[in-house]
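cron nightly-structures :: item 1 of 1
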Amino acid sequence: MEDNQPVLLTRQDGVATITLNRPDKINAFNVAMHEMLREHLATIVADGAIRAIILTGAGRGFCAGQDLADRATKPGEAPPDLGQTIKTWYNPLVRRLRALPLPVIAAVNGIAAGAGANLALAADIVIAGRSAKFGQAFCKIGLLPDCGGTWILPRLVGQARAAGLALTGDNLSAETALEWGLIWKVVDDAALLDEATKMARHMATQPTLALAAIKQALQVSSTHTLDQQLDLERDLQQHLGRTRDYREGIAAFLDKRPAQFTGC
């Protein structure tokens, strides 16, 4: 692994840690970062030993969103096609993260702004350092939240708070984000990665088919009727009831011993 790569990947104890690695730019996205992140996610999917993922940032911030210098134009030049940028890079990234059959934990250090904030919120669980801040800064440069921001914010914090965040672009502290239900947990900055690693290692020992089914059911629940959701729960439970991990879970419970899940 080269430390100068824009995204780093380490794998240990069933956990893959993805580190956005442009600390001098607060890990702002450029094409090279997108390309390497896509490669690393493909590597993780192909690695049957990986059962949980941590996403974090190097240096003093998680991610400042898009590197604006990468989209700047000179006078007289045609403006960049931001729709094409989103179509090519950001939308596929969010879809990949949401579709992963593995728990994704975002460990947010420092600022998470713009697409960086919404990338973190695309994870299944968000743990933030106490100094972390979340900002929908799009309106400050004449844009609207992308990377799924306009979809996920109202669902997490309600319409009024989502509108306030998007229309002001103000930063939200980690403590307030926790109070509003935007994130799962706040820890001291120095304990952030340890806390995320502890959680990821625990999840890597759990019945990952069940965790994947939980992700699937939660993600569609807001657009389903109750009848649709009840039917989905029935179908997913039927499948899980035939897995080795379910049999092991029942046997371990009856034997009063820790379960040894294998993810199948």
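cron nightly-structures :: done
Residues 208-255 form a domain with the Lyase 2-enoyl-coa Hydratase; Chain  A, domain 2 fold (CATH 1.10.12).
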